[in-house]
């Protein structure tokens, strides 16, 4: 009698765990995440995490090197998905994440910019602008929160000021998660009272999640206010996702 095969979700969980261990071992020795070889290692690791999770990532368009990327935000899964497609790019995160076990360690080694709450937007803007001036891309989630992927929140414009100060283009990015039938899949979302574990359980239980990423035409900041930049970026992301554009210019 043949032994019973373990459920597919346990195999996926095991693969994810192995990728985390592999990532720790590789990234442990990385001092400069933006050196070409190290950047390739980090990108390859994120791609391996996506495969382990069973994510089928389909990309439309090309990331523009050294841009300020403005993406909608659905899940913590956005990080490995987007990082698997872009070299020499930094993500923004709240400072508390830097203290999380394992995740904080990996984020620091990968070059994440940690934004301290209460220090005002000016410090964050200067950090982002400094990275852009060094030719590093920066991924910004201007909704400032996650959604279930079925709608798009207003884009906050303040941190887009960094692109104005650095003279760097803003590239809107649209990301969405679909099920095996090609319909929007909110089970991949990380919202409300969800924990990372909650999302992980749902994802490993899914049979095939397709992730579509659209790298959209860049916006050059010259002659635009930051409110106009936010509105333009929101419009392009909304159109790519098939949503109506409702955002008003902010401050």
Task: Explain this structure.
The protein is α/β, with parallel strands linked by helices and about 250 residues long. Helices cover about 40% and strands about 15% of the residues. It has helices spanning about 10-25, 35-50, 80-85, 105-110, 120-135, 160-165, 195-205, 225-240; strands at about 55-60, 70, 90-95, 115, 135-140, 170-180, 210-215. Helix 4 (about 105-110) links the parallel strand 3 and strand 4 (about 115). The longest helix has 20 residues, at about 10-25. The model is unreliable at about 1-5 and about 245-250 (pLDDT under 50).
Summarize this, please?
With 251 residues, the protein is an alpha/beta fold. It is built from 8 helices and 7 strands, in the order ααββαβαβαβαβαβα. Strand 3 (89-94), helix 4 (103-109) and strand 4 form a beta-alpha-beta unit.
Indicate the radius of gyration in whole angstroms: 18 Å
Helical percent range? 25-40%
Q: What is the strand arrangement across the widest sheet?
A: 1-7-6-2-5-3-4
How many helical stretches? 8
Which helices and strands appear, and what pairs or packs with what?
Layout: H1 8-27, H2 36-52, E1 55-60, E2 68-71, H3 78-83, E3 89-94, H4 103-109, E4 113-115, H5 120-133, E5 137-140, H6 161-166, E6 170-178, H7 196-205, E7 209-215, H8 226-241
Parallel strand pairs: 1-7, 2-5, 2-6, 3-4, 3-5
Antiparallel strand pairs: 6-7
């Amino acid at each position: 009698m043949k032994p019973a095969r373990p459920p597919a979700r346990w195999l996926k969980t095991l693969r994810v765990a192995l990728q985390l261990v592999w990532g720790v071992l590789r990234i442990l020795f990385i001092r400069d995440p933006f050196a070409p070889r190290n950047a390739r290692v980090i990108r390859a690791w994120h791609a391996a995490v996506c495969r382990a999770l069973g994510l089928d990532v389909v990309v439309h368009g090309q990331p523009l090197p050294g841009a300020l990327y403005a993406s909608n935000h659905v899940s913590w899964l956005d990080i490995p998905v987007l990082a698997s497609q872009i070299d020499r790019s930094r993500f923004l995160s709240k400072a508390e994440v830097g203290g999380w076990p394992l995740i904080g360690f990996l984020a620091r080694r990968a070059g994440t910019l940690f934004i301290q709450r209460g220090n005002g937007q000016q410090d964050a803007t200067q950090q982002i602008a400094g990275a852009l001036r060094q030719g590093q891309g920066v991924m910004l989630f201007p909704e400032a929160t996650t959604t279930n992927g079925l709608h798009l929140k207003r884009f906050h414009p303040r941190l887009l000021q960094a692109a104005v100060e650095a003279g760097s283009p803003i590239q809107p990015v649209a990301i969405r998660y679909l099920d095996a039938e090609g319909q929007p899949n909110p089970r991949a979302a990380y919202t409300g009272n969800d924990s990372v574990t909650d999302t992980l359980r749902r994802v490993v239980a899914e049979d095939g999640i397709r992730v579509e990423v659209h790298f959209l035409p860049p916006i050059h900041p010259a002659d635009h206010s930051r409110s106009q930049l936010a509105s333009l970026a929101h419009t392009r992301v909304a159109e790519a996702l098939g949503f109506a554009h409702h955002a008003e210019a902010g401050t």
